[in-house]
Each structure stands twice: as C-alpha cells, then as structure tokens.
Design brief:
mainly beta, Immunoglobulin-like, six-stranded mixed sheet, five-stranded mixed sheet, 109 strands, disordered N terminus
Length: 1183
C-alpha cells in the first residue's frame, strides 16, 4: 500500500500545501537561552540523575542517557512560566517526580503521570507573592511538605496530605529578607526544625510537636549581614551545629548541649572578599563533611577539610575558578562523589578533587553556521557549529545530541570539514578574516593550532569546498573571493596538510556559491559556481587543470545558492538554482547540442536562502527542499513522476525565524533522510517519519469460543488502533472483555462465537505526520476448523530426520487428521527451516500449520584427553603432534594455538590450545612445557694426558660432547702459556650455558732446551778531538740489537764493564781496537754470545763557529755538501782534515752550489766558509 497521498498538481495553483508530509516537528539540538535555577533529579526513574531547568519561560528536563553523562536535548515540561522558584519532588506519592513552582502570585503543581508525561499546571494556592520555597518532610509522615515565604513577612508550612493536596499553616509573620533556609534536628528530639538566614540575623524555629507546629524564632546570632546557612554535626558530638555566612565570614555555631543554645561563632580564616555561600559536602569521600565556600576574589570555589583529630577545618585548595554563585551538589555521574552545578554546567570530580566540565547544556548565544558529518569513529552523523567566539561539536547518541567538544575561535563566519592529513578524522576549515584551518589531533582529541591560508575576502557562506582536486589521494581546498573575482584551489602537499601552491581557476567572476560533482562522468570532480547573473561549470581536465567556464545559465537574476542532484533518474547530476523567489533545475544533457535545459519548479516564496535535494520518500527519486529567511518557511517539493516533475511546496515548518541552512542527513540511522536546519539561535532536526507497516496481518481461523490473535509489525508509528467491520463498515475497537490489545500490535479476540464468522479486521497506524492502514483480513469461526496445538519447534545440533507426524482435530474433537507435507524432512546443514504441514478437513478445506526446525550446534568439542600431559624436554623441542577433540558434528578436530610450538631455551611455557568446530563452538585446554637441561657435558677424552712443552708453546683446548649443543670447547681460568720451567696444573671447564658445568685437570711440564739468540751492533769507529781522552757512550747504541729467549733470561752482561748495558761507558781515545763480548744466559743455563769492535780515534780540529744564516747539508754526508748563505755572498770554501791539511779549495763559489767530498775517506772534516763579512768553520762528517 502506498504510504503517501497523490496530489494532482495544477501548475497555476502555487499555494503551498500544508500537511500531508511525514516530517516530525523540529527537535532542537542547540538553543539560545539563559538557564535559571536547576535541580538534579531522577525524572524517568531509571536510576540516574537527570537535569531540570528554566530557560526563557520554559521548564525543561534533560535526560541522562544510560548514566553516561550524555544528556538529551531539552524536553518541555511546561511553557509560559515566570517562575520565582520551583522544586522537584514526589507530590502525590505515586513514585514519580512532580514539579511545584511559584510565579510570584500563585503556587502551581505540575503532576507527572508516569514516563515523564506531565499534566498542565494546576493552581494549589492563590496568594500574593509567593517567591521562595523549600521542600522538606516537616511532620515525619514520609511525604514532602513545603516551606513557603510570602510577601508581608509571612513564612508558611504547606502540609502535604499525601495525594498532592496541601493545607496551609503559618510559621512566622516576622520574616524579612529571607536569604537561605534549611531543616535539621537542632534540639535532639528527632524531628526537623528550621534554620534561616534573615538579613541581619540567624534564627531557628523549633518543631514543638514533631508534626510541623513551630514555636517562635530563637536567635542564634545577630550580624550586619547574613547569607547562607547549613546544618551539620561539625564536632561529632551527636548534635547538629550551624554553618553560616555572616558579616562576610564563614562562621560555625556549635550546639554544645544539643538543645539549640549556640556558642559564639568560630570564624574560619584564610578567606578574602565577599563570600556568597558556605555549604557542607564530603568532598574527599572520607566519611565526614567538609565545608565548601564560594567567594568573589578572582571568582573561585574553595573547600575546608575537617581534621578528624582536632575537629578543626583547614583550607585545602581551590576547586573551581568561577564567578561567585550559590552552590548545588549532586552526584550527576553516579561515581559516589559530589559534583558541583553552576550556570548550565556540571563540574564532575575526576577522583583527584579537580572538576572538569562534564555536562554543558546546549546553550549558545548565537550560531553562525553549522554542518553535519561523521566527526568521530562511530557510525552516527554528528553536528558541528560555530558561534561568535568558538567552534563546537555536538555528538549524536541514539539521535540525541550533546556537547562533546568546543574550542575558542574568534569571530568565525562559517566552516567546512575535511580530512586534510589522511588520518581518517575530520579537520576544520574556517572562514575567519580569510581562511584558516585546524587539524584534529587524534591522540589529544583536540583541534589546533590555527594555520592560515594566503587568501582574503572569501564569501563567508557558500564559497568554500574541500575535495581531491588533483586526484593524488589527499583533499585540497577550493575557495572563491568575494571581491577580487577569483576562484582558486590550494594544493595539499602529499597529504601533509601543507598548502603552499595556489592555482588559479578563474579571475573574472564574483562567486556566490560553489558546489562539486562529476558532471560529465569522466571520474573527475568538476566545479559548479553561481554568480550574480549566471551559473557556470568548470570541467576538471585532470590533475587539477580546469577548462574555461562553460555556461549553464546566463540570463537569470541574483542567485542565493545552488545544489547538484540527479532529479530525473538518468544517473546524471542536474543543477538546482535558488534565486530570490524562483526555483529552477537544469537538466544535464552534456554531450548534446544543448547541454543544459531549464525547468521551473512551481513555487511561491520570498527570500529564498538555501536549497538541497534528497530522496525523502525512499521512492527512488530526489525531492527538493528550500528554506526562506524572511517568511521562516521550509518547503518540500515532491518529485512526483521520477522525471523531474514536482509538486507545489509542502510547508514543513514556519517557526525557524531567520533560518540560514538546510541539508539532509540520516541522523537516526533508520534508512531515511532527515532534515537539518536552523537559525542563529537554534539547530533543529526534522526527523523523517516515513510510516511503514513492516508485517501485514493474516486471516485467522478459529473454533467457536477459542481466542483469536491478529498481529502486525510497524515502523515509525506513534500509536495504532484496530478496527472491525461487521458488515456496516470499519469502526474502531476499544478495550473490553471481548477485545484486548486494541492499541497494540497484537489484537486478541476473546472467545469469538459463530456470529463473528467473516468479520473483517484491520489496523490503523499513526505518527505525528501521517496514518497508514493495514491490509483487511478475515476472522473465520467454524466447527470445521482443524485445530492443531502449536507444533513444537524441533531442535537438533547436527542433523535431524523428522519422523513424528503431527495431527489436527476438528473443533468437536471427532476427527483426527494427520498432516502431510511436500517439504524435505531431513536436514544436516545448520540453520532454521520451516515445514508446512497440510491438514484437510471433511469439506476439503486445507489448513497449513508451519513447524520450525532449528539446527544449531551449540556443543563445544570435547578434548580426547581430559588433561594434557606435561611436555618435558632437556634441549629444544618442536611440537608436531597436536592434541585432538571429538565434536558431536565434525568428528575429530585438531587443536590450534597462537602460542609458539618450538622452544629452545630453558624455561616454563604454557600452550593454550583451542578446539573450534565449524559453528564456532570452542573448548580450551592448556598444556605445560618445561625445557630443563640437567645433563652435564662429557669430556671427549676421559683423562687428559700429561703434556711436556717448551716455554711459550701453545696448548690445545680439550672438548666435550653435550646433549643439546653437540661439541663444547673447554675454558680455563689458568694460564695457557708458560715461560718458566716447571710443572703446572690446568683445570678445564665445559659449560653448556644451561647451568651444567663439568671439569677436567691436565698436568703441564715446561722445559727449556733452546739457547737464547743475541745480535750485537756492527763494529764502531769513533772520531774524537785530540783534546778528548775518552769517548762516552751517550745511549744504547753499543747494547745488543736483538735478544730472543723462549723462556726467561737469567743474566745479560758484557765483557767491557760486566753490566747489562754500555750506556755512559767510557772508551779511551788511544787508537786501539777494543773487542766487546755480550753474553746471555737463560734460566735453564742455555747461553749465547756475540761481539763487536770499538775504535776511538783522536784527531786535530779547529774551533767550529756557528752562524744560523749559513746552512750546510746534508751532514753527515756520503759526498755532496750543499752550502747556503741567506744575506751574504760566499767567496771561497776550503776543506781541511782534523790535522789542518787542505784537501779541497773552491775560490769561485755561487750561492746554492755544493762541494763534493765523496773522494775522501770516512772521518770528520772542517769546512772554511769565507763570506763578504766573515769567515766561518763548520765540521762535516763523511760516512
């Protein structure tokens, strides 16, 4: 059955059709207003505290969803309330919470009828100026009474009679300037007395009889000013004391004898400024009450911890930095810690006495722009918005929206969302004095920091896009200037959200709106833009290269917005244009001679502002929606023939003043598209309520006086009503002894008789926008009806062969009919099956009764071995034999595991085996594995042989075999080289690295049979001056050049001085050859010798002079001697021997020349060098 009514559209009829639509009333998800006094109370009896509050004359409640600190949108309790005060409690003892409020003139009650369905307000009392109320059980009858202050200085007690009616009793006629009131047992008689702060004094009233009859006021203290009061046994002496704010101090009035005779105040120190309130609460959950104070020095709330030993209160810390306020405590998040309420916010203790905001009412002064998208990782669509000072994000929880995040952003005008850095989270691109963007950090859950694009004067509303322009896998940004006439795109550098490259698309158009779609089906997204007088599209030719603009329409007026959608079912995106008062669409005929054809949509509106398109009816074509800013109207234009022919506008709403945006989103995930719209003050969702009957009723056969049941399945229905046609037409059925469930999905007809045979039944379903009729079905009441008890469901796990044939009997029980079926009766594949049994009565009528067969293997496999044995090994092990289990359906199943099956290191391991059958049933076993090597290595040679070696000779390392590591080479802590003869014992160790160490010893005999090797220097001929009598050896040049001994040298000496060195020895200059013999002896007595000759020759010499400016080189020399004088010319060079004989003479000498003495024998010679200024003598050695 079609769910909508067809309207014949006559094109000259342009008046909007109101009604006949299936969108709900709008549901605000964000609103403007000032939250006044609030209470936390369990309004829906689900075990968690909800919130109530008054906003601009409306009394709302906000449902706490699943104790999760996710609060619903506001739900109206009453409207038009000018409340001075209100209270929430169970007025009429029906276990649900009601509301009492005063509007200064009267006292009203709003009764909760259950399930948070509230009656209209009822007047309890007519009076003049009720302005304060305090609920409390004054008379100990277990219902809540009210203490009311009335103008004229009167304080009343309203006694609750238990049914929501009240009797009035006067308490005092001398009440003025009532600042606070609490109740508590002051005099220890078990009933509630009253303590009040009355401007300049603090007083209490005794409940004299326990039934709410009060005596005169008794003064606790007189002060210049008083604020709040509270009652608590501060000193733990069994009676209640009073905590009050008096003369800007927090004062404790101790009640020493428990009769209400109070001591002078004890003032808490450490507080500065105007104190607003002091209340008691167990802030640190230690079992005693602390004192919480709000005051206005820098605006903060602090607390005083009670010292259990001294009873003193010590100032602890600041809880919140907020403006001075009255305190309200409730455990809003069910964590057994007191939370603090202040001005739309709950501050929830996170366990460390710090109070982050955990709940924020959806209050905003303005909302400039909003958008829908999946901003987190769930499947729901969320809403983001921006106001004058921030961007905020409303999470979607079961179609209920709550504030999830917000961050400061000065003066944002609009924004879009896009994943700019390929992390699968939506980032924000904001129009704010140009274009800025904020990246979402998935680790911190925060946006920022701000980053700027080099582009100003953007159209703030509809001229910003983000998509993969150049098809490189990341989202770029497209923007249009409002004044420069430019359309550009910013290239996202390799997905890292760095926009350094700016590409010009067009610089000759002032753009009002841009949209993106692949218009020509080439797989590249194109851009459609509207300006003041035309609509154009820019073909994306690949890699972000756009062709020149192509005209879609060049003859229209001012464009407000455009949208792209397929309106005629040809799978080509068409363009919708919204002008000031004209709605058109342009059919996409790209590729033909005329690529675009314009069609009008019948409409009458002004100030059209935004347009969108989606399939509202799930009928396969896209409808059109628009919003008007002046008339506040939202219209729906149905696509009636799947070819772009539209109905006149159907008015959805006319209540959103100065609406700004409209779009379609499936917020409730029910398969149809909802409508999102809003204005500066409200973001609203119109839920698409497509009425649907998901399961139609069927004909029912029954015996006379046997109950009959009709059933139906529905979707998006608020209510339903069964109807019956007894031949006079359908009429509603109501609850009676004959009909039950008349407004439910199952109608029960109790004991119908023959007269109802052939009656028709149907169900009418309703929601807030439409109704739907089910199929009409019959009730047959006949004796010939074959009645069969409900056939039992046959269960089996692996297979089943149906052998028991069901039977049916007629109504009188005289006939038994066995069922027959053509369905198979053997099943061995898991699943649910239905066998239709047919029963034929004597009249040839066939009745079919289904029997359900379910094959569902739920039995886990049974391990073959009840307890797996320990696997014990010494070395490595590879487990190849997997344990098995027997399955009722699959036979033997081998185990699987995620643990390793190969082990090589000592240790204890546990393998977790799983036995899984084909249906996923599992059983489990564990099996321990112990790898413990306890076997010691075995030496290859049982007894190591005694070794005889020479000094320094290498020793071979013995080896051992090991069960795990094959061969192990021995190690030792003893020396493995010896240089002294003797007998040594080496202990060898064989370690397998598993803690098993075996050892062996081996005797080593060291002998030295090798003589030392000694090499002497060559023969030495030394020349000295004749004036020198000896030659003193300056260094080690006369000592042995080399000494090699395999063991240890015992002695080293020479024949000249008998010492081990000739350093500093004196050799006489007597022209005699001296032979020096070096002798070396080792520890074994082995001895070696070497010798060399020393000859010291004395020669005559001239005195050598020195001039650093004359260089002679090389010296000693083998022949040539070079002479260089830096500043004077050399005239002659003469060579003398040490006896003074002239050997060579050069009289013509050029600077830098040489003298050749290679013909001279070895010895010392004197060069006489004559310059222009002096004569110099220099010795030269000839080798």
């Amino acid at each position: 059955m079609k769910y909508f009514t067809t309207f014949f559209v006559i094109y000259f009829i342009v008046n909007p059709i109101i009604g006949q639509q299936h969108f709900s009333d709008y549901k605000p998800v964000m609103y403007e207003g000032s939250m006044e006094k609030t209470f936390a109370a369990d309004m829906d009896n689900d075990g968690d505290l909800d919130a109530t509050g008054i906003i601009d004359g409306f009394l709302y409640w906000f449902e706490n969803m699943d104790s999760s600190l996710i609060f619903s949108e506001k739900k109206v309790i009453a409207e038009g309330i000018d409340a001075a005060d209100y209270a929430v409690f169970d007025i009429d003892s029906d276990s649900d919470l009601d509301i009492v409020y005063t509007d200064f003139d009267n006292l009203y009650i709003i009764r909760n009828n259950g399930s948070c369905i509230f009656n209209n307000p009822e007047i309890l009392f007519f009076t003049d100026y009720f302005n304060q109320m305090y609920p409390a059980d004054i008379d100990n009858d277990n219902d809540i009474d009210l203490i009311i202050r009335q103008s004229g200085n009167n304080l009343y007690r309203l006694k609750n009679n238990g049914d929501g009616t009240f009797d009035s009793f006067i308490i005092s006629t001398e009440i003025s300037s009532l600042n606070d009131l609490v109740t508590g047992d002051i005099d220890g008689d078990g009933d509630s007395d009253i303590v009040t702060s009355l401007g300049g004094k603090i007083v209490w009233f005794e409940n004299t009889t326990g039934t709410g009859i009060f005596g005169p006021e008794q003064i606790i203290d007189v002060a210049g000013s008083t604020e709040s009061v509270d009652v608590y046994d501060v000193d733990s002496d069994g009676d209640n004391d009073v905590i009050a704010v008096a003369d800007e101090n927090v004062c404790i009035y101790y009640n020493p004898d428990g009769t209400g005779n109070f001591n002078s105040p004890v003032i808490l120190g450490g507080i500065e400024g105007n104190i607003c309130q002091a209340k008691v609460a167990d802030m640190d959950i230690d079992g005693d009450m602390d004192i919480v104070v709000s005051h206005d020095v820098d605006g903060f709330i602090s607390w005083f911890e009670r010292d259990n030993l001294t009873g003193m209160f010590l100032m602890e810390d600041t809880l919140l930095n907020v403006t001075c306020t009255k305190l309200s405590f409730s455990d809003i998040n069910n964590d057994s810690r007191p939370d603090i309420y202040f001005y739309n916010k709950w501050y929830c203790d996170d366990g460390s006495l710090t109070f982050p905001v955990c709940i924020y009412a959806h209050y905003r002064n303005t909302c400039n722009w909003f958008a829908a998208g999946n901003f987190d990782t769930d499947e729901n669509i969320e809403i983001a918005g921006c106001s004058s000072g921030e961007v905020f994000y409303l999470d979607n929880y079961k179609s209920t929206f709550f504030l999830a995040d917000q961050f400061e952003c000065n003066n944002p005008e609009s924004f879009i969302t896009s994943d700019l850095n390929n992390d699968n989270f939506q980032d924000l691109i904001v129009v704010k004095d140009g274009i800025v963007y904020y990246l979402y950090d998935s680790e911190t859950g925060e946006y920022g920091p701000i980053q700027m694009l080099p582009f100003l004067q953007i159209n703030p509303k509809n001229a910003l896009l983000s998509f993969d322009v150049d098809q490189d896998g990341d989202n770029d940004i497209v923007a249009a200037s409002l004044v420069e006439g430019q359309l550009v795109w910013f290239e996202n550098e390799i997905g890292i959200s760095s926009f350094n490259s700016v590409h010009l698309i067009d610089d000759e158009i002032i753009i009002e709106s841009i949209k993106v779609k692949d218009l020509d089906g080439d797989g590249k997204k194109d851009i459609v833009a509207s300006s003041d007088m035309k609509i154009v599209w820019y073909k994306n030719n690949g890699a972000g290269n756009f062709l020149s603009p192509q005209i879609i329409d060049n003859n229209s007026g001012s464009r407000e917005n455009i949208f792209i959608a397929d309106l005629n079912g040809d799978n080509k995106p068409d363009v919708i244009s919204l002008e000031y008062s004209v709605l058109r669409w342009y059919k996409n005929l790209i590729g033909s001679v005329t690529p675009w054809t314009a069609y009008g949509i019948p409409s009458t509106f002004t100030n059209g502002l935004d347009v969108c398109s989606f399939d509202a009816e799930n009928d396969g074509d896209n409808d059109v929606f628009l919003i008007c800013s002046g008339s506040n109207d939202i219209f729906w234009y149905k696509n009636t023939d799947y070819d772009g022919t539209f109905s006149s506008g159907i008015l959805i709403s006319d209540e959103l003043y100065f609406s700004t945006l409209i779009t379609g989103v499936d917020f409730d995930l029910d398969g149809d598209v909802d409508l999102l719209s809003g204005n500066n003050n409200n973001i609203c969702v119109f839920y698409n309520r497509i009425p649907d009957i998901t399961e139609q009723p069927e004909n029912v056969f029954t015996c006379p006086f046997s109950d009959a049941l009709f059933s139906i399945g529905t979707k998006d229905m608020d209510s339903l009503r069964w109807q019956m046609n007894n031949g006079s037409g359908f009429a509603n059925i109501y609850e009676s002894s004959s009909f039950q469930g008349t407004n439910t999905e199952t109608l029960k007809i109790v004991a119908p008789d023959y007269s109802m045979n052939g009656f028709k039944f149907r169900c009418v379903t309703y929601n807030d926008v439409n109704q739907e009729f089910s199929d009409s079905v019959f009730l047959f009441v006949t004796d010939e009806f074959l009645f069969s008890e409900d056939l039992p469901v046959l269960y089996s796990e692996c297979s089943i062969n149906v052998t028991e044939i069901p039977f049916a009997i007629n109504c009188s029980g005289t006939d038994t009919i066995w069922g027959v079926t053509s369905d198979t009766l053997y099943y061995d594949i898991q699943g649910e099956y239905s066998v239709d049994w047919e029963f034929e009565n004597s009249s040839g009528e066939i009745y079919i009764y289904p029997q359900t067969i379910i094959l569902n293997d739920v039995t886990p496999p049974v391990p073959v071995v009840a307890e797996l044995p320990l696997i014990n090994a010494e070395c490595g092990i590879i487990i190849e034999d997997l344990p098995g289990a027997t399955d009722n359906c699959d036979g033997i199943i081998s185990a699987t595991t995620g643990d390793p099956l190969e082990y090589h290191e000592d240790g204890y391991y546990l393998i977790h085996w799983a036995f899984t059958d084909d249906q996923g049933n599992q059983s489990y076993q564990t099996q321990p594995v112990i790898l413990s090597d306890n076997t010691f290595p075995i030496p290859v040679i049982e007894t190591l042989p005694e070794l005889t070696i020479s000094c320094g000779q290498s020793i071979s390392f013995p080896q051992a075999t090991d069960n795990c590591y094959d061969t192990i080479t021995g190690t030792t802590n003893d020396p493995i080289e010896y240089f002294i003869e003797g007998t040594y014992l080496i202990t060898w160790y064989f370690n397998d690295d598993n803690g098993n160490i075996s050892s062996q010893t081996q005797t080593i005999n060291v002998f030295d049979t090798i003589t030392p090797q000694i090499i002497c220097p060559e023969n030495q001929k030394i020349f000295v001056d004749v004036s020198d009598s000896v030659y003193i050896v300056p260094g080690f040049e006369f000592d042995p050049l080399s000494l090699i001994e395999n063991c240890t040298v015992e002695t080293l000496s020479n024949s000249y001085n008998g010492l081990s060195s000739l350093v500093c020895s004196e050799f006489p200059a007597i022209d005699t050859i001296i032979t020096v013999v070096w002798t070396v002896t080792d520890m074994a007595g082995n001895q070696s010798e070497c010798s060399f000759e020393v000859e010291v020759i004395a020669e005559n010499s001239v005195t050598e002079t020195y001039n650093p400016k004359i260089k002679v080189f090389p010296n000693p020399t083998n022949g040539l001697v070079y002479i260089k004088c830096e500043k004077s010319k050399i005239k002659a060079v003469t060579c003398f021997d040490v006896a003074g004989n002239i050997l060579l003479c050069i009289t013509r000498f050029n600077g830098g020349d040489s003298i050749d003495i290679s013909s001279l024998s070895e010895g010392i010679y004197i060069l006489e060098i004559v310059t222009e200024t002096e004569t110099v003598f220099i010795k030269v050695a000839k080798n």
